[in-house]
Amino acid sequence: MRRERIEEISAADFFYRNRAIAGFDNPVRATYTIVRELVENSLDAAEEAGIPPKIMITMERIERKENGSDLMKITVRDNGIGLSAEEIPRAFGKVFTSSKYRLIQSRGTFGLGGTMALLYGQITTNKPFIVSSAKKGDYINRMTMMIDVQKNEPIVIKREVLGIAERSFTAVESYFEGSYARAKRKIVDYLYQTAIVVPYADIMFVDPDGVVFLFPRSTDEMPPRPKESLFHPKGVDLELLQRLIRASRANTVKGFLKTSFQRIGDKTADEVLALAGIPAEKRLKDLKKEEIEALYNALRSYDKFMAPDHTVLSPLGKKLLEEGIKKELRPEFVYAVQRPPSVYEGHPFIVETAIAYGGEIKPAGEIQLYRFANRIPLLYDATADVSYQVAKGINWSNYGIRSLEEEPIALFFHIVSTKIPFKTVGKEYIAAVPEVEREVELGFKTCARELKLYLYRIRRKESLAKRAFLFRRFYEIVAECVEDITGERPSVEVLLKTRFGDLYEGSGEGEDNSGGEES
Question: pTM (2 decimals)?
Answer without folding.
Answer: 0.82
